[in-house]
Amino acid sequence: MVTTTPLEAELLELAGSVPDPELPVLTLRELGVVRAVHARGADSVEVELTPTYTGCPAVEAMSLDIERVLREHGVREVTVRTVLAPAWSTDDITDEGRRKLREFGIAPPRVRSASGPVRVELGPTRTHAPGTHGTPGEEELDPVRCPHCGSAETELLSRFSSTACKALRRCLACREPFDHFKEL
Amino acid sequence: MTTTPAKDTALTTAALALGDDALVLSHRLGEWAGHAPVLEEEVALANIALDLLGQARVLLSMVGDEDELAYLREERAFRNLQLVEQPNGDFAHTIARQLYFSTYQHLLHTELAAGDGPFAPLAAKAVKEVAYHRDHAEQWTLRLGDGTDESHTRMQRAVDALWRHTGEMFQPVEGLDADWTGLETAWLERITEVLRRATLTVPEGPRTGAWTAGAGRQGLHTEPFGRMLAEMQHLHRSHPGATW
């Protein structure tokens, strides 16, 4: 079993306090992307970072921010290593992270219970048809709620929004468009 | 200059096959930027391209320098399927290519993710991303196939035109531990079901054979690929080492 020293725990806390470059309301810890910090000697550490999406362009900015914060804390040598396994999931976002997303106007991802085979609904042929949610395996999940008014009556406008991790939706009750952090 | 991978191992063969598929399709999808029919599709295709580019970077970095492999190899050194290098055509052609490839990629990565080979970590991530790509392609196939007369005609033309490039996907790749026959059966079932629901006819022509397409894995490519590579590699070759 790998043990974490008090120093490593402290540095992990620090690395995790870095804000996400694209969603600065969230910290990297709340996003669930900082996996571990290993001390490699007196003042050298290695940080394990996992990307949300394989092609996420924010990984470089995250690495630089982590390096800067740890260096300011007196660590001379910081190496940020990208790890893929186990694959990041939106279930890794903390409850606090979900709450902050909602306050920020982004519908948080819903928690998926089992990782069974992904089912795709082939029925609707219009994206605004009722029941089209744009999430594979959709029917096992609760409806996406509007982050502004809380209504469960929302429709999909586009499966991909300003970033790959979000879909664009519109609330049918208050008519506001909003981003939905897609389940992954 | 041609950069040859240092070791011609099974790992290299497999990583180049998967990585080149992702890289080349990513570039083709990127060509839609500024040309997609609606803004939402512009963003969707660019996001799918970005996912694929991320996968390509991981895969190519497993066996060499990603920039050298992407920008300095000659056409014959690329190991991608001929399907992914086909020009975008009209929107229906792009959707048909997405439907065929994302269905294949989802099945293959699901199998690789379940194993314990060197590609399992990437495959486990990619399969979740590709589920959205496949959903996007299937929904559009339904809308266009079961849409207007014009969209139906174009979608049928697209699935017919690309059909001859689909047999190549199931030629075994050295270094990839997969049940290729099982993959092909599952792929055909899924595609048949989607096309049927989209009121489209499953193409009847051969999917592979002596005269048909299918030697991308051996480095033989179709005519449009050279021009795509020229555009993709031009900047890097003209300004070696340039950064911003």
Automatic annotation (TrEMBL), chain A:
Pfam families xrefs: FeS_assembly_P, Zn_ribbon_PaaD
Residues that span the membrane, as ranges: none
Database matches in NCBIfam families: PA_CoA_Oxy4
Residue span, PaaD zinc beta ribbon domain: 139-182
Signal peptide from the UniProt entry: none
Protein's UniProt name: Ring-1,2-phenylacetyl-CoA epoxidase subunit PaaD
Domain MIP18 family-like: 16-79
Source organism of the structure: Streptomyces griseomycini
PANTHER family reported in the protein's UniProt record: 1,2-PHENYLACETYL-COA EPOXIDASE, SUBUNIT D-RELATED, FE-S PROTEIN MATURATION AUXILIARY FACTOR YITW
Region listing for Disordered, in residue ranges: 115-141
Lineage: Bacteria, Bacillati, Actinomycetota, Actinomycetes, Kitasatosporales
UniProtKB/TrEMBL annotation, chain B:
Domain of life according to the entry: Bacteria
Gene Ontology, cellular component aspect: cytosol
GO biological process per UniProt: phenylacetate catabolic process
SUPFAM superfamilies documented for this protein: Ferritin-like
Alphabetically ordered keywords of this record: Oxidoreductase
InterPro entries cross-referenced by the UniProt entry: Aromatic_CoA_ox/epox, Ferritin-like, Ferritin-like_SF, PaaA_PaaC, PaaC
Pfam families named in the record: PaaA_PaaC
Extent of the signal sequence: none
GO molecular function: phenylacetyl-CoA 1,2-epoxidase activity
EC number assigned by the record: 1.14.13.149
Protein name: Ring-1,2-phenylacetyl-CoA epoxidase subunit PaaC
